[in-house]
Structure formats: structure tokens, C-alpha cells
Amino acid sequence: MKTTPVRRTAAPEADRLPESVRGLASPWRLPGLKGLLTTLAAAAAVIWSASGVGFSPAALIEGGPAMGEFLYRMWPPDFGKIATIIALLVETLQMAVIGTLLGAALSLLLSFAAAGNIAPRPVYLAARFILNVLRSIPELIFALMFVSAVGLGPFAGILALTLGSVGTIAKVYAEAIEAVDPGPVTALRSSGAAPTQVISFAMLPQAAPLITSYTLLLFEGNVRGATILGLVGAGGIGLELTTALRLYDFGHLFAIVIGIVVLVTAIDRFSAFVRARLTA
Q1: What is the pLDDT of residues 20-74, one digit of tens each?
Q2: 225 located within any domain
Q3: Mean pLDDT, the chain, as a whole number?
Q4: Does residue 41 fall inside a structural domain?
Q5: How many structural domains is the chain composed of?
């Protein structure tokens, strides 16, 4: 008896996708009640915030000529004090380097206390509270505090950047440690490894790429932050920038801005190069 072979139809494209992304291939559907309420709440928050701060695109359009006049006054840039600008930019970069290194080191130590998969609950809550406090205080306040303690100059700015870095990046370090694969951690713990060995051989190797990437991002932010700390006498290019603005020396002001843009762009390219090497 001759049998007819059964023809198997190809599975739909969505059925051949992994389970974790199969929902993304489904046709778009109207949001349910929960999604609708979330959208309405978000829209209400945006409208409330915009009305509370006087957000007005019409006012921005009306002020366009004034902005154009301000930019016109800055042209052409005056590079007559280029040596001073370069020296202060170098000082700003040095502040960012030291502030980032100290802040990253302290953040890494504190991140173990702020990681829920390592620290006991009381230690975890205390560490998170400290990070919340540090993150709530602007770096300019830290700078004013350290200027009163150690005097004017870049050292006060470095200390301010250090504390600001801890408040910013320690929480991210802790979350990177919490996100590691628990398998190697459990294996080492079950074999009787000490907590320091578990951290050194199971957690840090997994979290190192993320920690390095976050540190580079912190460095970029500290370079920009160091340009502001000079406003309160904590070193860097900020004081020169403020002085030029107060004296209406717009050409010199524009030259300083160009220098900051060049410095930030160079650091951005360096960070991108390092990240590419890490992920290669």
C-alpha cells in the first residue's frame, strides 16, 4: 500500500524565535487598562511639570534674536591668552584624573557593602543610605566645604570630585555586582571558599567590564564637573570662564569654550577606544 508523505509546513517566523523575544514579534495591540492608566499618568506628570516651570516654546522662539546677538558677540574667538587656557585645561584634566581614581577606589570598596547579594541586610541599608546622602549633595557644596578647609586651589576640587564620584558611581558598581551570574558564586561558596575569594574569583571578573565602562563614563563626567568647580575657587578652568563672562570678554570666553569642547571630545574618543578594546 502506497502511503502519501506528510508535508510539513514551515513554522511561522515568530514560532522559530527564542521564547524571550517571541512576544516582540507579535502584532501591535492596543494597550490594556493598566497601560492606558500608565500613559495617562505619565502625560499628566509632563503637563504638570511643564506648567509649574513655565515651559514655553513660544518664549524660546521670541528669545532667538537675543541668543543670536550673544553668539555674535563671541565671534571671533580671542586666543591671545591661549597659554593660560591650556594650562588651566591641563589642571582641569589632572583634577578629573585624580578625583576619578580616588572616587572609583572608594566606590568599589563601598559597593560591596551596598550589594544585596554580598552584604547583610543592615549593612546594605546603611551603605545605601550613605550613597543617597552623598548623591543628594551637589559637588559645588562639597567644593565650598573643602575650600573652607584646605583653601583655594585644585586640591579642594579634587576632594569635591572624589566625594561626588562616590555618590554617583558606587551605586552603579553595586548593581553591577548584584547582576553577576550566581552560578560561579554558589560553586565557590559550596566548596568552602572564603568571602574574599568569592569576590576576587567569581564576582569581580564578571563585573569588571561593566565597572570599567562606568569608570570611563565617570571620568568624562568629572572632566565636565571640574570645569564648574572653578566657580567657587576650587581650581580648573571654571574661574577663568566666569571672569571672562563678568568682564564681557566674549572673545576670550569663546576661546575657553572651544578649548573645553576640544578636551571633552578628545576624552570621549579615548573612552570609546578603550570600550572597543574591552568588548573586542
Answers
A1: 445 545 555 666 777 788 888 899 999 898 888 888 888 888 888 888 888 888 8
A2: yes
A3: 80
A4: no
A5: 1
